[in-house]
Every structure is written in structure tokens, then in C-alpha cells.
Amino acid sequence: MNSNKTHEIYPKFLNQLAVDLNLFYKKIINSNINVKNKNKSGKFNPVTSFDKAFEKFIRNKINKRFPGHSIVGEEFKTKNKKSDYSWIIDPIDGTKSFVVGNPTWSNLISLNYKGNPQFGLANFPELNKYYFNQSANTAYVVKNGKKRKLRANKKSTFNQMKLAGEFHGWLSLDQQLKILKVLDLMQFPSSDALSYVNFCEGKIDSVIQCVNKIWDIHALIPIIKASGGIASTWSNKDPKEAGTILVSSNKIIHNKMLGYLKPLSEFIPGGINN
């Protein structure tokens, strides 16, 4: 990627996209919400009319500005798989929260180059704030029009760290018993993408989740890294693979958590990376 060009074009586009998304949400906020379960059997995996409306809106913005780019979204088919540039979209991350009126849901959009997340946007319409990275080393939160630089809490120690985690019901009791030290440390609330951006603000020192798909995590990876955080899977692989995710504010915490998670380091819920 041409660094001078991309450091201007894509962050600027994502900034404007956040503004446009919030205006769009205000227009449709009073519309009826239709909810369906995408999972024909078993766990509740909802999709709403708002998920689809958001994704269509985002796709339209990308198509107009970058017509040759690939688009991979949660709700609709992939467009132009041959492009080196791909946009990964989660129109509503935290649909269950959205359905019950919890304001922690977000819009997640990532720009990838040859499969690697480069720029990300995490937009929280109900919380009036959004997060994005300006470059590989700089990320911001914008709340009520005021921009502030993001920085993970690098001074945190393992004994004093704040850990947020959630398993979304995927870990059995037997599996959880294998990581009792992790369970003892999980004393702070976790809520989808909001946990990751709270980490980027230095409010949380480590985050663990176990069922992230690419559209759940790709937009957050560049923001996490630009804020100084470390991200990997539980088996210490590239987080772009999705599935199990560990985020830490420094290497000491990260390595210690990898050790605690080792009994489940190869755990991948069926189809989670698809």
C-alpha cells in the first residue's frame, strides 16, 4: 500500500462513514425491527432488518468510492473476490444487545490489503462515539465531535490487571474447568466490540473472547495495534484468523494469559472462521 496516500484516503473515508452511519441511524431509528433466527436449530443467532439496512448502506458507500474493491459482509454475498483490497463488514456487532435495547452494539468496518487488516472503524451510534486508526501507530476515539488519541495501559501488571472475557455459551463446563485460573481473573464485564475499544482507551488491560468471526475482529485489529495493544489467537497465531482472541496491554500479561489458556489453545468452534 502507498502509505502517504492510504494514510489520508481511508481514515478520511472511515471518519465520514461514521458520521453518515449515525445520520442514517437517526432516520431509521423508529422503524419496525424484524428479527429472525439465522440458526435453524440450536443457539439463537439473530439477524434483524436493521442489520441488512446498515450493510446495504455501507456497501453502497464503498461501491461509490472504491468500485473495484472486494466487499465481504456478514449478511450478503461477497463482491469481487479478486481485488487485493477488501472491506470486511459487520453491520451490527452485538445484534442480541441491539434486539433487547442494550446500547453497546456497533458497526464494524475494516479495510484489508491482501487479507491483512490495515484500517478499522468501530462506530457506536447509541453511545455517540466511534473509534478508528489513522495509521499503524495512531488511533483515536471521537465522542460528541471531540477527538482523543487512544493508548492501551502499558503500565499494567499481571497482578493488577483488569480482564474482561466472554465465551458466548460456547465453552462446556468441562472446558471451563480446564482454565479455572482464567475464570478467577474475569471480574470485569464484557460486551462484544465495546470490550476491545475499552481496552484501547486503557480502561481494561486484557480481553478474551472465543467465537469471533472475521467481521467481529478485523476492524478492531488495526485499532488495537495502533493503540499499543497486542492481539493473537489463544494459540498465539495471527488474530486475523479469528476464532479465539486474546488482547493484552503488554507482553508479560499476554504471555501469562497464553499459558493459562493453553489447555484450550486449539479450541475452535465449528465454522467460526467462515
Descriptive account of the structure:
It is a single chain. This protein is an alpha+beta fold and 274 residues long. It folds into two domains: 3-149, Fructose-1,6-Bisphosphatase, Chain A, domain 1 (2-Layer Sandwich); 158-264, D-Maltodextrin-Binding Protein, domain 2 (3-Layer(aba) Sandwich). Helix content is 32%, strand content 27%. The chain contains nine helices and 14 strands. The chain has helices spanning 3-28, 49-65, 95-99, 173-177, 180-185, 193-200, 214-217, 220-226, 251-261, and strands spanning 35-37, 46-48, 70-73, 85-93, 106-113, 116-124, 129-133, 139-143, 146-149, 163-166, 186-188, 206-212, 230-232, 243-248. Strands 3-4-5-6-7-8-9 form a seven-stranded mixed beta sheet, with helices on both faces. Strands 11-10-12-14-13 form a five-stranded mixed beta sheet, with helices on both faces. α1 runs antiparallel to α2. The chain is globular and about 50 Å long.
Number of strands: 14
CATH topology of the largest domain: Fructose-1,6-Bisphosphatase, Chain A, domain 1
* Count of helical regions: 9
Coarse shape: globular
Instruction: Provide the β-strand percentage band.
Output: 25-35%
CATH architecture of the largest domain: 2-Layer Sandwich
Please report the first level of CATH classification, the CATH class of the largest domain: Alpha Beta
Element string (H = helix, E = strand)? HEEHEEHEEEEEEHHEHEHHEEH
Largest sheet: 7 strands, mixed
Please outline what is shown here:
With 274 residues, the protein is of the alpha+beta class.
